[in-house]
Amino acid sequence: TQLLEQSPQFLSIQEGENLTVYCNSSSVFSSLQWYRQEPGEGPVLLVTVVTGGEVKKLKRLTFQFGDARKDSSLHITAAQPGDTGLYLCAGAGDYGQNFVFGPGTRLSVLP
Amino acid sequence: DSGVTQTPKHLITATGQRVTLRCSPRSGDLSVYWYQQSLDQGLQFLIQYYNGEERAKGNILERFSAQQFPDLHSELNLSSLELGDSALYFCASSPHAGLAGGLGGELFFGEGSRLTVL
After folding, report:
1. A76: CB partners within 8 A, 6+ apart
2. DSSP tally for chain B: helices H, then strands E
3. Any chain B CB within 8 A of the CB of A96?
4. Which of A109, A110, B98, B113 suits B55 as a labelling partner, its CA being 20 to 30 A distant?
5. What is the pLDDT of residue A1?
6. Contact B106 A100 (CB under 8 A)
């Protein structure tokens, strides 16, 4: 069974600060995704990374996939209250059947 | 709006009872996934159907069952409910049969059904 760990579990910061959250596994993934889930809603896809070492930017969010495709990071620059939510990483194994989610990082950005 | 519809949004029932959760996928999506989300377990994959056939099974209890109908909507049946079954149940849909290596298909989630077992 492929397991994903995310850190930190909780993060509370002030508006304007930068932050990085991490997603780690001992398994290799063919692709890794980041989702954001807001209260009362389902997760929404932010990005998919498929190549080791890949970096993708989405406005103030920067996503990186580790060279060995076992880990990923999400960096947010100048966080805003609208970034508040649960950030989930999810990996698809080489066999590609099941989508495994990490436990999430719960981010709170205070105005 | 993801295009995935789940009903009911909230459900309160007693231990030992049986409930059915319903999901309508996005138009054109053939795969339906069911996930359970609780505070201590995170988002746990339960089961996937593709075009009416079971495609993959995760940590789904024997008390739970699901099916996908010819019109592609899906139902998750939870029976002999226990207090620990209280959770958010999400349905997601995708056009893909599975996440073949490198394909990285997107999952579109509904808003979930919150089940409370008293």
Report:
1. A18, A19, A20, A60, A61, A62, A83, A107
2. 0, 11
3. yes
4. B113
5. 56
6. no
